[in-house]
From TrEMBL:
Protein name, UniProt field: EamA family transporter
Transmembrane segments: 39-60, 72-90, 96-117, 129-147, 153-171, 183-204, 224-244, 256-274, 280-296
Keyword Cell membrane in annotation: yes
InterPro entries on file: Diverse_Substrate_Transporter, EamA_dom, EmrE-like
Amino acid sequence: MKGPKAEAGVVLAITAAASFGISGPLLKPMIDAGWSPSALVIVRSLISALVLLVPGLYAARGRWSQTWHARYDIAMVGLIGVAASQLAFAQSLKTLPVGTAILIQYSAPVVIVLYRWIAGRAAPSASTMVASCLTLCGLFAVASPNIDNRLDLIGVLWATAAMVTVALYYVTASRVPHTVPAISAVVGSQIIGAAALLMLGFAGIIDTTITTTSPVLQGQHIPWWLPITTVGVIATALGFWASIAASRVLGSQKAAFFGTLEVAVAVTVAWLALAETPTAAQIIGGVFITAGVATMRTRYER
C-alpha cells in the first residue's frame, strides 16, 4: 500500500513505539518499590480501558454487529498482546539479565519474516533481509551492556515465549477488521487481557502485589499513582491504539519492525528519567535499529 495511507501507517507505528518505549523506565522504579510485574500489567490495562471506554463505545456506535463478529480477533489481541507477551517478558526478567531478555523478545520481526518464508507465502525481499540483519545487530548492541553468560533455561524459555507472543500479537492485530474502530478494539482487548491476568492472580498462579510506597525517580520520591497513570494513558491506551491501527495499514511484518524502535526510545527515556547514560554501543545500536526500520519498504504486507 502506497501513498498517504502508508505514510499514516508509518506515523502510527512510530507513535506506538515511542509510547511503548516510556513504560520500562517509568515502571522500573515501581518494581523497585514493591509492585509485582503482573500487577503493573493489570493496572495499566485497566487504566487504559477506563480512559478509552467512552470514546471506544462512541466509535462503535452503528458498528456493534461488526465489532461482535470480530470478537475472537479482539480477544486474541487481549490474551496474546496484553496478557501473554507482557507476562512472559516479566517472568523472563526473574532469571535473565534485562539485555538478554530484550534481545530475545525483540527478535519477533525476524520470526515473522521466517514464518512467511517457511509457510511459502512470500520469500523475503533483499530490503527485508537487510532490515533483519541491521535490526538484529542494533538490538545486540543496545542490549550488550546488560548481557552476560547466565543463560538460565527457564528464563530463556520465558523470553522465547515473549518473542513468539509479540510476533503473534502483530499478526492478530493486523487481522482486526477495518470495520471495527481501533479504539474500540483496544478497549475490548485491554479488558480481556486484564481479566485473564486477574483470574491467574486469584488462582495464585501469578503474583499481583500492589504497594503505595512512593517510587524514586531521579532521586526524588514521587506519588505512586503518577508513573502507573502515565503508563496507562500513554504507553498503553495510546500505544495499543496506534499499534493496532498501524498493523492494519502496514501489515504485521512492517509494524513489527517499527516496534523495535521501542528499544531505542526506552534507552533514551532511561537516560532522561533515570540518569542511565547510554553507552557508545547503545547509541550505535539505536542507529542500526533505525536504519533497519528505514530499510523496510512501507508497502502493505499482511
